[in-house]
Automatic annotation (TrEMBL):
This is ATP-binding cassette domain-containing protein. Residues 344-578 form the ABC transporter domain. Its main location: membrane. PANTHER family: ATP-BINDING CASSETTE SUB-FAMILY B MEMBER 10, MITOCHONDRIAL, ATP-DEPENDENT PERMEASE MDL1, MITOCHONDRIAL. It is found in: Cell membrane. It comes from the Bacteria. GO terms for molecular function: ATP binding. It is a multi-pass membrane protein.
Amino acid sequence: MMGRLAIKDVRTTYSILKPYMIAHRKAYMGLFLLLFVDIGLTLSFSWFFGHLTDAAIHSHFGLMKWLVPLGALLVAVSIASTYLTTLWETIATNGVKRDFSADVFKHILQLPGKHIDGKHSGDLLAHFTNDIHNLDGIIGSSLIYLIKLPFIYVAVFIYLLQISWKLALVSVFVAPVAMVSGVVFGFMLRKNNRLIQDLVARMNVLLNETFSGLFVIRSFLMEKFIFAKYVNRNQELYALELQNAKLRGWFYVGSQAAASVTFLISLCLGSYYVSSGVLTVGALLTFINLVNHLVYPLTELAGQWAGLQKSISAMERIFKILEIEIESDSLPEAIAYKPMLSAIHFKDVSFSYDGQKLVFDQFHMQIPPGKIVAIVGLSGAGKSTLFHLLQGFYLPQSGSITINGRSTAALTVSEQRSLFAHVSQETVLFSGTVRENLQLAKPGITDAQMIQAASIAGIHTFITALPNGYDTEIGERGSRLSGGQRQRMAIARALLKDAPILLLDEGTSALDSETEYHVQKAMEKLLHNRTTLVIAHRLSTVQNADLILVMDEGKIVQMGRHEEIIRQEGLYRRLYRLQAEKGAPPSDDHSFDTRVV
Ligand SMILES: Nc1ncnc2c1ncn2[C@@H]1O[C@H](COP(=O)(O)OP(=O)(O)OP(=O)(O)O)[C@@H](O)[C@H]1O
């Protein structure tokens, strides 16, 4: 992995992009060669104009006869060179961007949970919609241009010296002025570009949150507020772009003025030399043409320089992601475990999300193999955190978690995550078909297995009634399905993963009684031959559990079977009674809703 680097300049940016550019070295070498072809063409065309003019003035038809086909040849080479430059530049630039963005994407997929927490999805999105494309300046045309500049300068200057050394000296005095102002403006542009890119990222966050929460926005009548926020940010962006344009404009005006002065002085002096017989008309034409090639790059410098600065500030943003240590070297893959009854042991586990407030302090927990364990407790007690730690989404600061006597620290990410099938409270499905969503569970799932799992989860009949059956699109995040249907899809997905340990979160408040009953039945079928941890909200689950763990503020305050702990004075009985007082006397069909307390 890349070490910690502070992006300060172009060199650092290139040190990151170097391997990607080397991978496309053929295209870059081609472009480098074409650069010399281009310089050769520039000199040849100028030479051609001068000689053709002199030949015409002096009626040298013999010379003109072979100059004309030579001119045609130069045009042909120029056309071929333009075509190849366009092609190779696209191959190089897009090739580097394709490979680099794939690596950035892979890196984000491998970021540890604690680093994902602090990132906005819109901000991450901006790396791909904005930052990667802004790298064009440093890997594409600006790079070629800036490499070409010194070469063309030297080549043209040597040619000019041969025509008239006095004129040549006059014509290059502008170069150092342009260089110095380029550095100063470059610095200012980079600062401005950084602000623009940060703002674009913030706008992405706003857009992302707006579109994903559109119904909440409508329900709370937040449209005006959101719209005003968007308009303000857009205005801010406009102001920054304007500032950027002014900077580029001044740089352009400066270099244009210096270039025009150079051109005019050369033209006046040159005309004087022609009238005094020192230069021929053809030589002056060659000279003026070449001076243009010195002047033109300087006027273009502002644009190229801005592109380069944009790239560097884009890379600064991407680098903040790249410098975070990832949790594994490669992307994890599902491993097939044979059915096994797993014992889980938390020993002196201390954990904090933010490094300050401890969720677990020297936490101890032992889950016997093959049992159904219900976890109950107040909201914020640490139940979900327990699931996060088990699956290795977060690592404990101290202590150990062992599964069948093996520490999770010794497991690879693939090994650890393949041990669990998780049905979470908030069901996340992906855009695509029912089949695609179910097949995500494990590679190589057959249709027969898929139908079996969907039948157990009680969703097969519903799926077959859809217009395209298993090939029906379910919309973004499964939006075309109801809450209960989504949950049963998640159960089918967990069944197909067929992992040794089940983690269930009974968040069924959104379901009607009949759906809840079906979901519950489907979940029960998941429980055989495995160790199961259920964050329990239903009395039936709690009563049927082999073991109940009652959690409070990151500690297990009571444990045992329902009949045992209901007799004890403590949180469990309080929760149970409160449920009864709510007017819903506990029975098998009612929710053991710990959240209401
Ligand atoms: N990503 C996070 N970053 C910081 N703190 C967090 C994060 N997730 C949870 N917490 C905090 O950790 C504590 C335990 O949260 P956890 O989600 O494990 O509780 P829970 O028992 O599952 O609650 P609930 O029943 O409401 O889902 C809470 O104080 C919560 O605010």
